[in-house]
Design brief:
The structure is a single chain. The protein is an alpha/beta fold. It contains six helices and five strands. The strands form two sheets. It has a three-stranded parallel β-sheet, sandwiched between helices. A two-stranded parallel sheet has the order 1-2. Helix 4 links the parallel strand 3 and strand 4. The longest helix has 15 residues.
């Protein structure tokens, strides 16, 4: 998973000159660190290496043009600030978590075991383990991200 997030970040840097911010909640720091390490170019800001707060997250997201995230609180922060967001759904149900935000693109691959609503996959190691997320390709995420980046920016009230 970290390698695919890194590949998306690298592609956005190469194709769009993006300044990438890697964000992490305290319990996600190891994964975020792997994302930053897997990137060919270092992120502009790596919050996996800093103490992070909700205030810092809000300040950073507010300045972004695009957020790519799993179904997390950062998604809601982005929507509140009018920031485009690509949300990757695996085990959570996008219908249950719908925010009706026109600048959001949901990326999800329907698999037989999802939405299970579990934080950890209970499948044994192998081809069906965490398939809800493993089936999401770099290209799917880039397509959604680039579609949002191609849209005109809305009026930036409050920014």
């Amino acid at each position: 998973e970290a390698e695919r997030f890194a590949a998306v970040a690298d592609a956005l840097i190469e194709r769009h000159g993006a300044a990438v911010v890697v964000n992490a909640a305290p319990n996600e720091r190891a994964v975020a660190r792997r994302v930053a390490e897997a990137m060919r170019r270092p992120p502009a800001v790596n919050l996996a290496e800093r103490d992070n707060t909700i205030s810092l997250l809000k300040s950073m997201v507010r300045r972004c043009r695009l957020l790519i995230t799993n179904d997390t609180g950062a998604r809601h922060v982005a929507a509140a600030f009018g920031v485009a967001v690509v949300t990757l759904f695996g085990s959570t149900d996008p219908v249950w978590a719908r925010i009706d935000y026109p600048r959001e693109r949901v990326v999800r691959v329907p698999v037989p075991c999802a939405p299970c609503q579990r934080k950890l996959c209970d499948r044994p190691p192998g081809p069906t383990y965490h398939q809800c997320m493993a089936a999401i390709s770099v290209e799917m995420v880039l397509d959604a991200a680039e579609a949002l980046l191609a849209e005109p920016l809305p009026a930036e009230a409050g920014r």
